[in-house]
Structure formats: structure tokens, C-alpha cells
Amino acid sequence: MKRYFITGIGTEVGKTVASAIITQALEADYWKPIQAGELDQSDSLKVERLIDNNQSVFHPESYRLNQPMSPHAAAARDGVEIDLSCVKTPETKNHLVIEGAGGLLVPLNDRDTILDLIEALNAEVILVSRHYLGSINHTLMSVEVLKQRNLTIKGILFNGNENKDTESIIAKMSGLEILGRIDELNQLDKSHILSEAKKLKNRLL
Questions:
Q1: What share of the chain is helix, strand, coil (3-state, %, to 5)?
Q2: Which of 24, 49, 148, 152 counts the highest number of beta carbons within 10 A?
């Protein structure tokens, strides 16, 4: 069974949409280990509303933090400290999609980052990239950090309108598989997620 950790080159690059599409494509289980803020509109709830299958199970977060901040700061506001030993992979016989928070070096406490969480969970990484001025640098730096830790990278998934110049140089310089590109979605609903999932499925198996 596949275990994918969905991370991004930064915040607001489309990890949750990508996670929904990948979850639908594999009819996988979904897990967001750390949710900071928006507890009544969590990423888990958002993904669940976009999924259209009877197989996916949505596992509870290990940490639910009240403030929409970096996890280390949100945890401090709540009077807790995130402990990686308390973040246990849910038991499942299904594929599992794990959604991260922010980018790779987002701190979870005074010692650990999202990168350490990926390593602890022993998951294969899908890196979500979105085009903006500076995104080539951010994408290639993220790839370099993952490679330095010898973490397995499934590939890069672009989110948003096509930019051939950017996508081709990232593919060439990273040496990674480009899994695809999620078209800019003006209306986010189950039908759009299903359409994108069908395009991506074969590259994930």
C-alpha cells in the first residue's frame, strides 16, 4: 500500500486540493497529523467534503491547535508541545495520504520540523509547487533538502495554470518525475476533484 506525504514549497500552494485529488485517485485514507487553526473548517473536513467514494477513511489529527500559526507557536499558545513520538500513523490496510503544514522547515517545536515528521512517518513525498516569482528557487531548494535527508520523493505536482519555462527547468534540474499539473479550479467541487483524480491516478500507483 502507498503512503504519501503531501508537502509544499510554502504556504498556500494548494496542498489541501492536491491531497483531495490524490485521496480520490487512490480511494485512499486521509490524515492531517497537525491542524493549526480553523478547527471548525479543518483541512480534513475540506477534503472529506470533496471526496466521492466509499473507501476513504478520515483519521483524527494528532494535534488540534487553536491558532492559525506555525505549529510550534500555535502549540505554545495552547500550552502544549508537539512531540513526534505522539504522532502515530493510523492503522489501515488502505493507501494513506498524509497532509503536512506549510513547507519542509516549518518548526513543530524547538527541535523538529515538518521534515523530521516525514522522516519519522517513513512516507514517500509528493511535493506541490505553484508558479510565482521565486517558485523555481523554492521548489529546487525543497528538493535539495529532501535529497539531503535521503527521503524518497515520488515526484512533483504543479498546481495552477501552465508555465512551460518554469516546469521544464524544474524537471531538468531536479531530475524528478513530474506527476502532472492541477488545472486552476474556479469552482472547487466533487466533479472537478474527480476529473483531476482520473488524470493523475496511473502515475500514483
A1: 40, 20, 40
A2: 24
